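2024-03-11 09:14:02 INFO receiving multi-entity request
2024-03-11 09:14:02 INFO entity count = two
2024-03-11 09:14:03 INFO echoing inputs for audit
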Amino acid sequence: MTRTAETLRTANAPAPIISARDVGKIFGGGSVVALQGASFDVAQGSFVSLVGPSGCGKSTLLRLIAGLIERTSGSLSVHGRDITGPHTDVGLMFQKATLLDWRTALENVLLPTEIARTPTAEDKRRAFDLLKMVGLGDFAFSFPSQLSGGMQQRVALARLLQTGADVLLLDEPFGALDEFTRERLNVELMRIVAEVRATTVFVTHNIVEAIFLADQVVVMSPRPGRISAIIDVPFERPRTLSLQTSVEFNRIVEEVRTTLGEH
Amino acid sequence: MTAGADRAPALRRAATHAAIFLSLIAAWEVGAQAGWLDPLFFPAPSAILASFWRIYVVQMNIWPHLGVSLGLVFAGFAIGSILGVGLGAVVGLNALVRRFLQPYVIVMEATPRIAVAPLIIAAVGFGAQSKIAIIMLVCFFAPFINTLSGVVNVNEDRLQLFRSMGASKWQILRKLVLPDAVPVIMAGERLALTAALSGVLVAEFIQRDQGIGALILTYTRNLNMPSAFACIFTLTAIGFAIFKGMEILDRRVAFWTNEEGLRRVGLARAAAHATLAGGRHG
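2024-03-11 09:21:47 INFO inference complete, emitting structure
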């Protein structure tokens, strides 16, 4: 199942959406190697998890793809365009919902549109529909402080979809939530990204979550941060939580664990 | 039902407070009448009440002084706090300016502003301008420092989010940095307006031509303590009104910091988008 980065492409997929070759990032004038020689492709519509312990460079890699930080070596492109700075081809979501406290859920979802242009009635309708999609149709006029942590992340997800970006970059989006809420939101996330046909990169340190969601799991190791294996997850979609108890699933969990343990 | 259950203890509490307050006043009155209290420091409450009646109703001589003082307070506060917020934003948003200005700000903050008052009069001369200048000075710093720290302490994740949405610097300022700083700016304004009241008194103690500060000086010099106390209690009432007024304003402007504000604005926003929400059921 372990393959080299270059062959990570599903059989029927055309050019990859995200393409990384030997990407490296050094912080602090050469003192900290956050990422070294990362190469991988993400195919159109696929779901890729980046998994690994703290300091393995998974969040760094995500921010490099978003153009929020500059790489120090290698080449990196989204939609075939070289990344030189922040760009609107991708939508971001963090562990904290980072909603604006003075805006209603609906106004928070509308923010990306407002930044691009003056929102139309159609934009507002779409934002409202997205809130319904994440199960918050009744909370459109609630403020973030009136919502639970899980609900706040749903609003952040709706906002992410409102950007219209077809590449979603998620950095431990449900990491701060309790186990039950997280499992439920993971199932919903799978449904939603399939519905909008998004390409997704999902950062987590939870192995089960990483495998359950993904088509490919990119296993990363620290000091220096690098990719140690890319593992295919062949299960059919839609998936249900019961998948996690299957023998094949747990064989992949073991494979990821072993890969992490080697380093 | 909860309101009804809360009302009885609240009433009892209010009654207790009133009883304690009235007992204190009565003890003071008895003490003053019996000659146990020095009338120079503790004039009888009845004498203070009589002074209130005289200076407000009979002679009506407090009104022009009150008008002058309040006019100065609001003029000085308006100019000082607008300058404070404006310069605080400019300095806070410009890292280079901030670095070079920082030591001066710290030194100025450590200096009691009141100490500079006589110098201001020497520089600007006697009259309303120098009084306003003194009030401006005492009003400037709280909004300045608060605005500065408010615009500097922006959440890094939020900033990255705005950048990834392609937001311009102006959009980041208008949609993220400034609204985020509103609660702390409002806290600065509250401090400033309270300081303005002290500022006007200092200015009027130095230039004792008119105003409530000058009036207190005059009464005290004439050993008319009941009238001086009437002026002081007037200031107590004004100070309290300012505090309450700013609290209400604060809760309305930074509505997202309190439950009641969230509910009020949430309802208003829902009403403004009635067609959108209504479509959900249709």
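2024-03-11 09:21:48 INFO post-check: The first helix of chain A runs from residue 58 to 66.
2024-03-11 09:21:48 INFO post-check: Confidence is low (pLDDT under 50) at residues 1-11 of chain A.
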